[in-house]
TrEMBL record:
Belongs to the FGGY kinase family. Keywords: Kinase, Transferase. Residues 248-435 form the Carbohydrate kinase FGGY C-terminal domain. It comes from Mucilaginibacter roseus. Residues 7-236 form the Carbohydrate kinase FGGY N-terminal domain. It holds the Pfam family FGGY_N. This is Carbohydrate kinase. InterPro entries: ATPase_NBD, FGGY_C_2, FGGY_N. PANTHER family: SUGAR KINASE (PTHR10196), XYLULOSE KINASE (PTHR10196:SF57).
Length: 454
């Protein structure tokens, strides 16, 4: 029996690290996942253990390359991209992979904006709200001024997906989906690094830019040629299956901890209003901008659901099974209009509703979903208005909530609203990006299962 042609994708999240093998129809034929314990940096802040991560990749890749059942034709990577790996001239890492959630020094932040422009100006020009270490360019700036001895040894600064590719290809590169994702590095108007990058001479540490669909031929075991991709930022990778599957303009609402609305069909610059409301730009793997808005819906839903369940002495799991009831929705809409407050919610927000006003827990739950949908509509409309979008696809946790989906469809009556089911979308996206390099078949027509709502 001949070995099955496959592509190997390393999907590296902050929590789970996965290796998946896909056949030529992008069906999973092998999957292995691990959780790697974090270590701490020099300040005691939790961070990724790069040594364990390197072993995870090398050990698991060796196993599949030596497996008789598979013929690995290509390898690619998708990973969270808001952190830099700094390497010296020998390719050795110089620092921990600093956690992008680590608080940024206030004095250094003030120094940056005093030198290079106001936060508002920089944010508009780089399509990046001021987010501290979540702006990876600010990490590089911090290294220059807080650790100059280390900074002077840096040969290249690589975003995590490109560092993982470097481990196999030996080629240090930059890639647009990582550079263009809230890094404060990229000037979206000039289509080049922002002027502050040149003023600080950091451009010398950023390797040449390569497109997300490019590959390097790597020889393994002295004889086996494999196409190695450049790696992709995970949010941009998850969008690729939709881009290759649908020709009509669409927006994708990816739900989970964050509900992120992605509009690949809006090329206009971000406005001040959009930036003030947590909008930003990504760059998709073909190099064009993707406008995005964010709403911290997951934690708000979970906290408020727990309050309802506790008040009515119910299990939170009860509500996962509820079907949509038009009569209940109409009653709650009439008697208890949603709050429609700001969608800038945080875990410190206290529930302001008096739950005694509801006849039962189901009505309280409908009211909660109505309020979540009202806020989601406000967030989504920030990147929707004025664009030729005809479809709204929803994936992630809320796509399985029938009440949410029906109410969302009612909130956007001019759009075709569909729940989208696609397991491993981020990993498949990384495979599709280099499809041309390893797979002679056309893109599968059934990558995404859609369930329409009205």
């Amino acid at each position: 029996m001949s070995a099955q042609p496959v592509i190997a994708i390393f999907d590296i999240g902050k929590t789970n690290k996965k290796l998946l093998l896909f056949n030529e129809r992008y069906e999973v034929v092998f999957e292995h996942a691990e959780r790697l314990e974090e270590i701490t940096d020099e300040d005691g802040y939790p961070c990724e253990d790069l040594k364990k991560l390197r072993h995870f990749i090398s050990d698991n890749l060796t196993k599949v390359l030596n497996a008789d059942a598979y013929n690995v034709k290509a390898i690619n990577f998708t990973a969270y991209g808001a952190s830099f790996v700094y390497i010296d001239q020998n390719g050795n890492t110089l620092t921990p992979l600093y956690n992008y959630l680590k608080p940024y020094p206030y004095k250094l932040r003030d120094r940056f904006y005093e030198s290079h422009g106001t936060p508002e100006t920089i944010a508009i020009e780089t399509a990046s709200p001021a987010l501290g270490n979540l702006n990876s360019g600010m990490q590089l700036y911090s290294l220059k001024y807080q650790q100059p001895q280390v900074f002077n040894k840096v040969k290249a600064a690589l975003h995590l997906p490109q560092y993982l590719s470097f481990l196999l290809s030996g080629e240090a590169i930059s890639e647009l989906t990582s550079v263009g994702c809230h890094t404060t590095l990229w000037d979206f108007t000039a289509n080049d690094y922002h002027r502050w990058v040149y003023e600080e001479e950091l451009n010398n540490l950023l390797p040449p830019l390569k497109p997300g669909d490019d590959v390097t031929v790597v020889k393994f075991n002295g004889q086996h040629n494999i196409m190695v991709g450049n790696g992709l930022h995970d949010s941009s990778s998850a969008l690729i299956p939709y881009l290759v599957s649908f020709a009509e303009p669409f927006i994708l609402l990816s739900t989970g901890t964050w509900s992120i609305t992605l509009n690949p069909f809006d090329q206009t610059p971000l406005t001040v209003e959009q930036l003030e409301n947590d909008c930003l730009n990504y760059i998709q793997y073909k190099g064009t901008p993707v406008k995005a808005s964010r709403y911290f819906a997951g934690p708000e839903y979970e906290q408020r659901l727990a309050q309802i369940a506790a008040h009515f002495n119910q299990s939170v799991k009860k509500y996962e099974r509820l079907d949509f009831d038009h009569a209940i929705a109409a009653k709650v809409q009439k008697e208890h209009p949603p709050l429609q407050g700001s969608f800038k919610w945080s875990s410190k927000t206290k529930e302001i509703a008096n739950l005694d006003q509801f006849t039962n827990d189901v009505e309280a739950y409908y009211w909660l979903i109505m309020d979540i949908v009202a806020k989601q509509k406000s967030s989504t409309e920030l990147v929707l208005n004025g664009t030729p979008v005809k479809c709204l696809f929803v994936d992630g946790g809320f796509s399985k909530n029938k009440i949410f989906m029906h109410l969302l469809a009612a909130a956007f009556p001019h759009l075709q609203v569909c729940a989208a089911t696609m397991p491993q979308a981020t990993a498949i996206g990384a495979g599709l990006a280099i499809h041309h390099a390893w797979n002679n078949n056309p893109y599968p027509a059934d990558l995404i299962n859609l369930e329409p709502y009205s």
